[in-house]
Each structure stands twice: as structure tokens, then as C-alpha cells.
Design brief:
The protein is of the alpha/beta class. The protein is 39% helix and 18% strand. It has three domains: 69 residues, Elongation Factor Tu (Ef-tu), domain 3 (Beta Barrel), CATH 2.40.30; 271 residues, 3-Layer(aba) Sandwich (Rossmann fold), CATH 3.40.50.300; 87 residues, no CATH class. The strands form three sheets. Strands 8, 10, 11, 12, 13, 14, 15, 16 and 17 form a nine-stranded mixed sheet that branches. The longest helix has 20 residues. The N and C termini lie far apart (114 Å). Bound molecules: adenosine-5'-triphosphate (ATP) and magnesium ion.
Length: 504
Amino acid sequence: MEIKSSDLVSLFEKSLSDAPQKSLQEIGIVVQVGDGICRVHGLENAVYNEMITFEGGNKGIVLDLEENYVSIFLLYNSIPVVELETAYRTGEAFKTPVGMHLAGRVINAVGKPIDGLGDLVIEDRLPIEAAAPGVIERSPVNESLETGILAVDALIPVGKGQRELIIGNRGTGKTAIALDTILHQKGKNVFCIFVSIGQRQANLARTIRLLVENGAMEYTVIVSADSSDSVLCQYLAPYVGCTIGEYFRSKGHDALIVYDDLTNHAIAYREMSLLLRRPPGREAFPGDVFYLHSRLLERAGKIMAGGSLTALPIIQVQADDITAYIPTNLISITDGQIFLDDQIFKSGVRPAINIGLSVSRVGGAAQTKAVKKMAKTLGLELAQYRELLDFSQFGTDLDAIAQERISKGQRAVEVLKQAQYTTYTFIEEALMLFMLHEDRLDGIEISYVHTFVMQFVSYVESVYPKIYKVILDTQDVTSDVHDELKRIVQEFKTLFVLPDGRNA
Ligand SMILES: Nc1ncnc2c1ncn2[C@@H]1O[C@H](COP(=O)(O)OP(=O)(O)OP(=O)(O)O)[C@@H](O)[C@H]1O
Ligand SMILES: [Mg+2]
């Protein structure tokens, strides 16, 4: 058979047009690389936040656009990128897998499972940067998110859709508050997301073990970017977690997200900004560090269509100084803060919540009726107690009223002490607060107060299950129940035997 040259040409042309081709503008060349960042020449149409893939298998995100090059942060520390390597545009933003079956899994910031439980069952992939719900879409925060921690539920209540900051020195029990809250959501239909940022791997392993042992992993997703991961992963992790939380919310569920902690997140971002040669501002943080956290936390909230996303960001301070740059930013973004005080922690009161400096700006509207009623005067009493305590240090003689207030305050502090991993139902909380409110617990020595109150609660539970049920059904302590409880206290007092053998 004779082949004409024109046939050959047309065949060649066809093969060229079929081949998957990148236009020249979508390919770039690495001109400089180091410290997890590289500069690439030639990606002229690349856009901010775009994913870039490298010939050698690494991936990155465009975070700076210059005239002659773009700066790309790399996702993986372990895959080398070399000079003159080719980089390709993907035309896509960074996305994370989402789905209801993510509950129970531990993933890293790039959406890969790290728990050895096989592939993820995913329903969609969503870009991690999204606009926060608008005012019209939002519904008021008017439902309680019980933490099971008496001091929080009674004095600084958190509502579904609220953003409550947990702030304190190193090692004052910040993570403990967040984890106890997650443990308490068991059977409450609240999906939890725990985002671990820049922590040591041992810490994460401990958290996972705790959640697994208490059956809390079933409704919890852990997103981890530990200290050995790239700074980019640490920067992305909270947005990944938030996107997963938003997905739960969009399906009509309540979700709770913990960011542990945003200090590490801000530090990762500072490192990135300095590498990008952005001008450093206060404490060497870049000017847009406020936006870093505001755009993340604005995405929490309760929406009209149903579903909510409650955020508990954690922030570490130094020497109890909550007026540093990042802490003040976060205090102004969130709807309140739980301040854990180093002095209080060291004095043995745990959880070490400083009631005076803690606040919940919306929680009151969302508090369970029973708890709200019983805790009405507690805040004031504790404030008076603290004031008098300072005053009494001058050695002045105190009158009878002042002494009584101090005695009452001391007993309140005792009742608010709570061991780690033990959380209370709202009925238990209401009963404990009732004891504080109604009965002064005067006859009982400070060291027995906690036992006395706890035993009263179990007494009511076991001997008067009807009362228990009424509180559960009405979510309230009605005046009938109140009267009945008063009678039960008297009865209980005749039965309670102090550890030293005396009656109360
Ligand atoms: N309610 C509590 N009762 C007793 N011990 C507690 C309580 N809460 C926390 N602790 C203990 O205090 C220590 C510090 O707690 P945790 O790790 O939660 O603090 P942190 O503020 O998150 O610390 P870091 O700043 O290192 O992250 C832990 O050993 C923990 O067991
Ligand atoms: Mg911690």
C-alpha cells in the first residue's frame, strides 16, 4: 500500500490534538525552594489559594502573587521539591473530604486517614474557605449546649451556635474543659470535631485513647496537624475542621468544634508571613492575623434551616496576661471567654475558672430553665465572697454578715470543684445548685461539703425518681418541686453521717 506524505501529516496532527496538553501558561518552573516555601516562575494566571502540583509529587498552595513569580507553600515536608522542577496549575482551590461517616475517624489536614482504619467514606469534597452565613440565614442562639461542667453551665453557659473562648496559661486545664464537653455530648446528637494544631504526637495519642475509651469517638472527628507536619498543614487544619462541621450543620445536625489551640495556629501563620516577607507588626505577627481568626470563627453559628456549629477555640496566654495581641483579638471575636487562672489552679481549685474574668455574652438566653433558676444568685454571691476575701486579708474584724458571706462563698467554691472526666446532667446540676441556694450548708465542715451535696443528689435520684422525672420533663424546678426538695433536704440531713461519725 502506498502512504502519501499528506496522510502522515494529518495523522501526526491528530495525535497532537488528542494528547492531554497543558497550555504553556499553566506550567511553571521552580526557581527557589527552602523552608517549606518555593517560588515558581511562569504560572502567570495562577490565582490566590490555588492548588499547585509538582512533578516530584509534592503539592502546594499559592499564597503570594508577585510580578515575576508566585510563592507557594508546600503541603508535605517529606517530598522534596528541587529547583527547575516543573509545577502545574490545577485550577482548583484546596478541598477537604466531608461526609457523615467521617465521625469516628482521625484525619490529617490533607484529608488522609491516619488511624489505620482504611479508606474514608466520603460524600463530597468542599473548598475549605467559605463565606460565613449571613444575618438573614442565622437564627438566634437560644438552645443550651450542656458542657456537663457545673461552673460553666451555671455561670458561663454556652449556647448552640456560640463561640466561647477557652483561655489560660499553659497547663491550666484548657484541653480538659474542651474534652469533658465532648465526652458529655454522648447520646445528645451533637457531632464533635477536635482540631489539634501544632501539638506533640503523644498528646494527640492520649486524646484519641480518652475518646475511644469513653465511647466518644463514635460521634467525633479528629483533624490533626501536629508539630512535625508542615506549617501549611497547621495553617489549614482549622479551616478543614470547620468545613467538616459546616457539612454536619448543613445536614441539619448540631456540631461542636474545638480548636486546640489557635496560639499555635497564629504562630504557624506568622512563620508563613515572615517567609513571604510580609511586613511584621505587633509581636511580629502580620497585619492580617485578626482576619485569620475572624473569618474562621464567623463561620460558626446557628442557622434558620436547622443545625448549628458551636466553636470552642482555645488560646494560651503567658503569665495570665489576657491583654496580649492574639488573646485580645480572640476575646473581641468570640461571644465570651472561660478564663482559667494559674493561681486558682495552683491553689487546688479545679476546674480553675476565674469567674470574675469569664463571661458568656449570649449563653444566658440559652440556659436550661432549671439551672438558670437555681443559679440566679450564685454569681453575685461569689463576687461578694471574692471581694470580702481580699478585704479580710488586711486582718480587719468582719461582722457577722460578712462572715456568713465568706462561709457561703467557701461552700460554693467547694461545690463547683469537679474532677476531670466526670460531667453532670442538668438535673444533677440543678440539685447541687439548689443545695447551695436553699441550704447554707452551714453545719457542714468545708472538707465534707462536696460529698454531702453529691450524696444528696444520688439520694434524690434513688429514693425520689419521680421528682427526678418531673425536672427532666419540665426542664424546670417548679415551686411544687422546690417545696418538696426542701422537705427532702431535712430528711436527708437526719440520714447523712459525716465521715467522723456525726450527723449533719
Ligand atoms: N478538673 C480537673 N481536676 C483535676 N485535674 C485536672 C482537671 N482539669 C485538668 N486537670 C489536670 O491539669 C493538667 C493540665 O490539663 P490540660 O492538659 O487540660 O491543660 P492545658 O491548659 O490544655 O495544657 P497545655 O497548655 O499544655 O495544652 C492535666 O494533668 C490534667 O489532668
Ligand atoms: Mg492543652
